[in-house]
Amino acid sequence: xxxxxxxxxxxxxxxxxxxxxxxxxxxxxxxxxxxxxxxxxxxxxxxxxxxxxxxxxxxxxxxxxxxxxxxxxxxxxxxxxxxxxxxxxxxxxxxxxxxxxxxxxxxxxxxxxxxxxxxxxxxxxxxxxxxxxxxxxxxxxxxx
Length: 144
Hints:
By secondary structure, the chain is α/β, with parallel strands linked by helices. The protein has one domain: D-tyrosyl-trna(Tyr) Deacylase, Chain: A.
C-alpha cells in the first residue's frame, strides 16, 4: 500500500460533475492498494495516519495530531500509485484487482471514521477531480 498524504486547509472531490466528498482542515489521502495488501496493512496505516503529529501547536511546531485539531480526512483511491515506472510505459501489475482493491478501500474508510472528526471519500474507480487548498504545503509518502 502506498499513500500520498497532504495536509490541507480544505479539499473536495468531484465525480460526474457533483461534489462527492469534502473536508475542512485535515488530510487528503491518495491511496494505492497493491496485490499484497491486507486488512492488517489497512489497519496499520490508518492508525499511523491518525497518530501523525504534523499540525502546528501554539509555538508553531508540528506537534499535534489530527484529533487535537478536529482534523478531517478525504480519501481518494488512486491505483496509479502502485505503478512500476522503471520503463517509459508504467506497469500496474502490482495493483490489486478492482474487487479486492474496493474492499480494502472501503475498509480503510471505515477505519478512519473512528479516528477523525469527519471521513469523506471519492468514488471508487471514477474519473475524479480533486481540489486541495494545501497547508504548507506539507506532503508525506507512507508505505505499508
